[in-house]
Amino acid sequence: MQFRILGTVAVGVGDTFHAVPGFRQRCLLASLLIQAPAIVPASTLYGELWGENPPTAVENALQAHVSRLRRVLVRLSDDPKAADMLRTRASGYSLDVAPESIDLNRFRGYIRLARQAMAADDLPVAQELLAQGLGLWQGAPLGDAAAGPLCQSAATEWEEEYLSGWEDAFWLRIRTGEPMRAVGELKRMTIAHPWRERITELLMVALYQSGRQAEAVGVYNAARLRLADELGMEPSPKLRQLFRQMLNQDPGLHHSTAVLRRSA
User: Cys-Cys with 42: which of 33, 70, 92, 143 at CB 3.0–4.6 Å?
Assistant: First the structure.
């Protein structure tokens, strides 16, 4: 059995994933998967399922949802033993699953191996591993189950890992001599994530190496004005240095290895 939390919470058997029915069943399963195989205290689960408005008999209500989730796991897996993985503990509940059965852990494994390949300058392998890892994402992490503080915090952390993985993917496109392939997506990402300077830097380099030096300078000026107007800050020293290199038409900017080593 596989579990998807990089998107709507779902249970997979073979190559097919099935969405978990019921909002609170999804919240319960998501909370347990985040901590698996550790115990999630009942008090934490109350907050994840009901927020600040738990029912009067909240302990009984939680037990009822645990029973429903066990039935869901059995039905989706077609295996009566699947109910045994959701274990009742003295202080709460735990989910006894293999780490590799959770897509988040597989994603992290691909990213880790990709960065090892990047460090060894094995760029084709790094690109393939990144593509496999990023391909596991099927939407916003946890979907609508990212409602309580535990799930919200986890989803925010994973989004950061996802963006960092994409930055590595763009780095590789430029590094392997395909800057034009990165420009369009990097432009979209600068709009969605205007404060991530690495995205700005990658876009500037991709434009410059594509022969669009004026656009690259324009990206820097727009970022500088945005930082000054909204945060009262200046660009980082690294971004300012890249800008000066462009103004001086530094020949090294056309050598992807020299330019992008500093962005990784």
Answer: 92
